[in-house]
Design brief:
about 180 residues, mainly alpha, two-stranded antiparallel ribbon, 2 domains
C-alpha cells in the first residue's frame, strides 16, 4: 500500500486478535491515528524497534570455514529452494552466499582454505587450477555431475572395503 490513509485503515487488521497491540490500538486517541507518520511514531514509542544484531566479518569468515561438505554427503541429494538437487550444488550455493556476506566474492581470498576442506572425491574431479573469484570456484563445483560423484563414491567405498578386508586378513596372519 502506498497511500497513507489505506495504511491507517488496514493497520488494525494486521494486529493479532486480542493481542496487547490490538488493545493498545483500539484505545489510543484518534489524534494518534491522524496520519501514518504519527501512528508510526506512537507505535514505536510503545514498541521500540529491536536493533538487529549484525554479524561481523570475522563471524562470517568463521561461518564460511565451518560450512563444510562432508564425504558422506557426496553423491547424495537434498532440497534447496523447494527443489531437489545434489548436496555439492547446495553446498556451493550457500558457500557463494557466505563469500558475498564476507564481501570477498570478487576475490580469491580464502578459496584455498575452503578448497582444502572439500572431500577428496570433489577435489579429484575439480580441475587443478587457480580460480579468479568465488563465483568461478563455486561454478566449478556445481558443474560436477552428480552421477559421476555417485560412481566415484561407490568406487571409493569398494576400495575402502577391500583395504579393510586386507587389514583383517593381515591381522589374522599375524596371530
Amino acid at each position: 500500500m502506498t497511500v497513507s490513509t489505506n495504511k491507517l485503515d488496514t493497520f488494525g487488521d494486521y494486529l493479532g486478535t486480542s493481542s496487547q497491540a490490538e488493545t493498545w490500538f483500539k484505545n489510543i486517541p484518534a489524534t494518534s491515528k491522524a496520519t501514518w507518520t504519527t501512528l508510526v511514531t506512537v507505535f514505536e514509542a510503545r514498541w521500540p524497534p529491536i536493533k538487529i544484531a549484525e554479524k561481523t566479518n570475522a563471524e562470517y569468515e568463521k561461518e564460511l570455514l565451518d560450512h563444510t561438505l562432508q564425504s558422506m554427503e557426496v553423491g547424495k541429494k537434498t532440497t534447496l529452494y523447494d527443489r531437489e538437487c545434489w548436496m555439492h550444488i547446495a553446498w556451493a550455493v550457500k558457500t557463494l552466499q557466505l563469500a558475498m556476506n564476507v564481501e570477498i566474492a570478487q576475490s580469491t581470498s580464502m578459496i584455498w582454505q575452503v578448497h582444502s576442506m572439500l572431500p577428496d572425491i570433489i577435489k579429484d574431479l575439480l580441475k587443478d587450477e587457480e580460480y579468479r573469484d568465488w563465483t568461478e570456484f563455486t561454478k566449478a563445483v556445481t558443474e560436477l555431475k552428480g552421477n559421476r560423484l555417485v560412481e566415484k563414491q561407490e568406487q571409493h567405498n569398494r576400495q575402502a572395503q577391500e583395504l579393510n578386508a586386507l587389514r583383517i586378513d593381515l591381522a589374522r596372519i599375524r596371530q
